């Protein structure tokens, strides 16, 4: 069971590898599971996969790589070919917000009907920091990022790659007036859509230096772009999966996690206003 795992081990089950076939070849990206509209009294929610728009918008075909589990506890990889892949994603209502979601319940039911048991863990709104929690953070916080950089993964065990870094701008501030912030971490093609979290295990301190015993987890945002040095010597922000002649400078641009609330009205309408 997931409760037997450490927080970092649990997070390894929160992402999903997205393999896309595009007119120019193929690409990989990162998605993660998120429970929208979670009602703690009724235990109802809408599970979705979240990634960047630019990961899927040019795809003519797509595959989701799931972890499934046998009755004896053995885990195995299961590839799901999604019909009408591009049309299966709901794009964020704000055109300039590089996020999209795919409702996961229909896929989970179809996979289960084939005799497979999807095995994953979802992030939820409880992990999105409040304004007060952001105020208590320092400008320099340790972060982790989970995904598939350069398409690299543990293919035998279907596990993502954990990367560690720091915040490069304060998460409470909007970088250049946008609901984003910068991280200092190695960001490569395939990392787009990776969740970025603060994960302190054992102890942590606040901005005043007060030390707390215990663990802390905050879902800060979703990686989507990074500044690149081009061959001409210019610096530009580029979506992570693009292939341009450039050198990444180990900075990543992260969309703040509360932008996910922008999907709520859409999902409420799809659920019939419930």
Which key features would you list for this structure?
274 residues, mainly beta, Thrombin, subunit H, six-stranded antiparallel β-barrel, 5 helices
Written overview of the protein:
- The protein has one domain: Beta Barrel (Thrombin, subunit H), CATH 2.40.10.
- Strand 1 and strand 2 (25-39) form a beta hairpin.
- The protein starts with 6 loop residues before the first helix and ends with a helix.
- Mean pLDDT is 90; it is low at 241-245.
- Strands 1, 2, 3, 4, 5, 6, 7 and 8 form an eight-stranded mixed β-sheet that branches.
- The protein contains five helices and 18 strands.
- The chain has 274 residues and is mainly β.
- 11% of the residues lie in helices and 42% in strands.
- The radius of gyration is 18 Å and the shape is globular.
Radius of gyration based on Cα positions:
18 Å
Q: Can you identify the CATH class?
A: Mainly Beta
CATH topology: the name is Thrombin, subunit H
**What is the averaged pLDDT score?**
90
Number of strands: 18
Residue share in β-strands: 35-45%
Helices, strands, pairings?
Elements: H1 7-11, E1 15-22, E2 25-39, E3 44-51, H2 53-56, E4 61-69, E5 75-82, E6 90-91, E7 100-103, H3 105-113, E8 123-124, H4 131-135, E9 142-147, E10 161-167, E11 180-184, E12 195-200, E13 203-205, E14 211-213, E15 216-230, E16 235-239, E17 246-248, E18 251-256, H5 264-270
Q: Short summary of the structure?
A:
This protein has 274 residues and is mainly beta. It is 11% helix and 42% strand.
């Amino acid at each position: 069971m997931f409760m037997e795992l450490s927080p970092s081990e649990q997070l390894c089950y929160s992402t999903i590898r997205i393999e896309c076939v595009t007119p120019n070849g193929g690409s990989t990206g990162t998605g993660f599971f998120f429970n929208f509209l979670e009602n703690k009294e009724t235990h109802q929610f809408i599970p979705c996969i979240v990634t960047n728009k630019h990961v899927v918008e040019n795809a003519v075909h797509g595959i989701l790589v799931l972890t499934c589990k046998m009755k004896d506890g053995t885990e195995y990889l299961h590839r799901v070919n999604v019909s009408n892949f591009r049309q299966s994603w709901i794009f964020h209502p704000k055109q300039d917000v590089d996020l999209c979601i795919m409702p996961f319940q229909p896929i989970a039911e179809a996979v289960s009907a084939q005799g497979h048991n999807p095995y994953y863990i979802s992030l939820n709104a409880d992990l999105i920091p409040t304004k007060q929690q952001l105020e208590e953070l320092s400008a320099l916080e340790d972060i982790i990022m989970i995904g598939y950089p350069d398409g690299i993964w543990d293919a035998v065990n279907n596990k993502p790659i954990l990367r560690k870094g720091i915040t490069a701008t304060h998460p409470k501030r909007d970088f250049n007036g946008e609901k984003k912030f910068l991280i200092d971490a190695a960001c490569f093609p395939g990392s787009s859509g990776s969740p970025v979290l603060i994960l302190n295990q054992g102890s942590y301190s606040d901005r005043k230096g007060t030390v707390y015993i215990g663990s802390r987890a905050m879902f800060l945002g979703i990686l989507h772009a990074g500044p690149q040095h081009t061959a001409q010597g210019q610096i530009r922000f580029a979506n992570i999966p693009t292939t341009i002649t450039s050198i990444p400078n180990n900075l990543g641009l992260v969309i703040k996690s509360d932008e996910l609330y922008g999907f709520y009205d859409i999902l409420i309408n799809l659920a019939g206003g419930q």
